[in-house]
Specification:
By secondary structure, the chain is α+β, with helices and mostly antiparallel strands. It has one domain (3-160): Nucleoside Triphosphate Pyrophosphohydrolase, CATH 3.90.79.10. Helices cover 17% and strands 38% of the residues. The protein has a four-stranded mixed sheet, with helices on both faces. A three-stranded antiparallel sheet has the order 5-4-9.
Amino acid sequence: MELWDAYSKDFSLIEGATLIRRESIPEGMYHLVCDIIVRHTDGSYLLMQRDPRKAFGGMWEASAGGSALKGEDARTAAKRELFEETGIRADNLIEIGRTVTDENHSLYVCWLCIIDGTKDGIVFQEGETIAYRWVSAEYIKSMSKSELVTHRMQQFIDELH
């Protein structure tokens, strides 16, 4: 059972409230989700392909990420999710935006991670990802809704240039 802290719409922690993954989130409460865009110093971006067994299976994501666990702040959750889904350890995360999605009671904190060095050491998380590739910002911005899971990342990438 995965436990999450509950937040109000303004990203404030609601003390004493706990949410449980896959259970309905009460009105006025949200869970915290982190998305991390990975950019190499050569200007290319990391795309990860979703496992076919997941929702939106086979589609590409321009970020790593997931829900913050109970007791984690946004930065800690982002570092954990980035490592779990890509094998990248990073302390140099730069917050680039926040988004509220009322439909699924989610608060998204989006981060940029700039890496240097080898691009071939990406690790897949079992049940999450099956492939990766490094592409240009222009390529990501041109991807269709049937290829890219979230177009919110296209907006952030556009703003980074």
